[in-house]
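>> received
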Amino acid sequence: MTIPPYEQSGPASKKGRHRTASVVVVTAALLGATASSMGTAQAVTAPDKSKVWQAPVKPQAPLKVANKKFRTCVNARMWWDSGKRASNTNIAVGYQFDGAELEPKERPDGSVYWKASADMNSKVYPKRSTMTITNPTWPRMTVKQKVATKQFRDGLIDYENTRIKMIDALLERHGQLQALGFGKSQGQALQALARDKGVVQGIAMGMVRHSLAYYDRHAKYGRMRTKLREAPHAWFRQWAGKNVTLTCPR
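>> returned
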């Protein structure tokens, strides 16, 4: 079976099952302690958030990181805030047809014609897909800025993971289509079926392409993922998430 790669936003790349990736933050916070039986309170120092350990977000597809250099962190943030795209995934989708079934049909006048049919199943192959994200860098990055860029990369990965899951769920729900062909003979019916297979596959590919375009347009490539909760089409609201931001701490 040929697995045509699907590129996003243009050449296509929904949808998977709803398993939203998350960033697990682990921190130890001392709320209070008694220094003695007299009940003297011990002073508490708030933990440095830049040093809080964060579990990495695991990409659902093989990951490529493209470094992009800027003069300063502010320049990088302006670039992101301007609306540029910082991530992309070529989602590999397989379109497989079952064997053709032939069935004779009779017209009212008694003449016979043939009907050929074949079911098509669509499936996402994450491991055959390719995910690319942008890693902004600039000279003399502080520790906190390195943490901020890691959070930015994790946000992009989570956004792309959601796009893969969305297409997987979309095809599981709507990717089972049927191609049909009719003819006076079995051969003519099979020829017509072969032509219709191309049409049916094109419908599925268009469904993937338009769904990704709709998602990207409303999520602003990750910047406004929370806005998806207000998307006109209710099905897309479940794929809302945390906005991807790039900050410049000192």
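>> Residues 5-237 form one domain.
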